[in-house]
Amino acid sequence: SASRLCTMRKLPSILARTLTSGTSGSSVLPDMSEVRSRLRDIVGASTNWRDHVQAMQERKALHTLLAKRQEDLPPRRMKDSYLEVILPLGSQPEIREKYLNVHNSVRFGRILEDLDSLGVLICYTHTKQEMQPRSPLSIVTALVDKINLCKKIIYPDCDIKFTGNVSWVGKTSMEVKMHMLQLHDGDYSPVLDATFVMVARDPENKRPAFVNPLVPGTPEEEEIIKQGELNKLKRIDFSTASLLKMAPTAEERNVIHDIFLNTLDTRQEGGGVEEKLKTVSFRSRKLPPNSVWMEDAKLKGLQICHPQERNIFNRIFGGFLMRKAFELGWANACSYGGSRPFIVSVDDIMFQRPVEVGSLLLLSGQVCYTEKNYIQVRVHSEVYDADTREHQTTNIFHFTFISENEVPRVVPKTYGGKYPSMLYLDGKRHFAATMKEI
Fold first, then answer.
1. Which of 99, 158, 316, 319 could join 113 in a cystine, given CB atoms 3.0 to 4.6 angstroms apart?
2. Are 429 and 420 in contact (CB under 8 A)?
3. Segment 230-253, tens digit of pLDDT
4. 259 Cβ partners below 8 Å, 6+ apart?
5. What would you measure as the largest C-alpha separation in the chain, in angstroms?
């Protein structure tokens, strides 16, 4: 229909011209419902929950189509996986309700869901075998490396366009770069850039599987592939420097010690300075002005994981987990800052284990660092098994928000308990990395 005709004048990627030249001549772009429909067709997923076991059993036969070595797979170019998808909020008002929030802008959690689906389809496009309608690969999201926003508001009545392609390939993993643009006055202007890392596994989603290598076609593409390799090394360095593996730096220790000294309660009745200092206790603490203890800056939530939220492999859809974590993080930032927060960045979301349908999903939000108008929120996600009574971490989410007003300073009280001081330093590191990027 004419509502989907789009003339693209601006694209954030330097690859835009070369990549779009590799797409089909049709002006009609697929929408997000077509993206999900294509994914079901590629995998052979059942739309009926009762049939899901049989559908997964049928995938076992696809094992014979897996490559024994990466060298056996034909190399691909970036343009081979390039996709453009429309979200017709302006031209199809009937889909608007699903994306609308109370502030009359677009729900960012829904955008996270769409990015997740699109990222998977881009990877299936990269690994497509011409003669095979069904893919033997199970492609799942391993990591949301970074999502940076350059617009505060996403309008609910203007068409959105997503573009993306595979930007780097390992043996069994793929980095995907995606961009989101919104139509204003006949032009598409950038809203966000996203980098996801996907992994390929066998038809039963049990073991790693090889993917087609990526070869550059231009000097620009060569640079992007090099950047992908650097991103991988950066992720390894960031993980190695984690506070769970390495002690805080001297500078970080000083930060925590200064906070500790500023919260000591030295108010004592009578006596000189020396007498007062003698009676100061590690337990005698006071909150500095315009501050909040970290332990008072939490929010919790619970989700029952219904079949409706399953992905094409009958596990809970990663985009749904991101949406629920974002909404809790937003509510945490909102209640902490006392005004409407806007998302600035999402980073370092590691999908540690799949979430089964029927799970009880426990979400814990924590404001872990603040600076001026900025609020850094960490959301911890875990599943509870009612049979074993065990809790298992599935994800850690990191969100950076900016509030309309300056916010109180969040202050860790102890090293103990849930390690507030370590959470504070972890939040400070994530915030610093985000500010460096944007």
1. 319
2. no
3. 989 888 876 666 666 677 888 888
4. 411, 412, 421, 424
5. 88
Number of domains in the chain: 2
Same domain, residue pair 259 and 395? yes
Q: Which residue(s) pair with 187 in the sheet?
A: 184
- Least confident interval from 89-103, 127-141, 169-183, 233-247: 233-247
Please list the residues that pair with 360 across neighbouring strands: 304, 384
pLDDT over 50 at 82, yes or no = yes
Q: What is the dihedral of CA 411, 430, 109, 235, to 10 degrees?
A: -150
Domain, as residue range, for 402: 250-264+283-436
Q: What is the secondary structure of 41-68 as a DSSP string?
A: HHHT--SSGGGHHHHHHHHGGGGGGS-S
d(CA 270, CA 330): 47
Lowest mean pLDDT among 125-129, 276-280, 304-308, 356-360: 276-280
pLDDT tens digits for 349-372?
888 888 988 889 999 999 999 999
Distance, first Cα to last Cα, the chain? 38
From the CB of residue 374, how many other CB atoms can be counted at a distance below 10 Å?
21
* CATH code of the domain in which 135 resides: 3.10.129.10
Q: How far apart are CA 196 and CA 398, in angstroms?
A: 14
Q: pTM to 2 decimals?
A: 0.86
Apex 349 CA angle, 347 and 353, nearest 5 = 175
Q: 10 Å Cβ neighbour count for 118?
A: 27
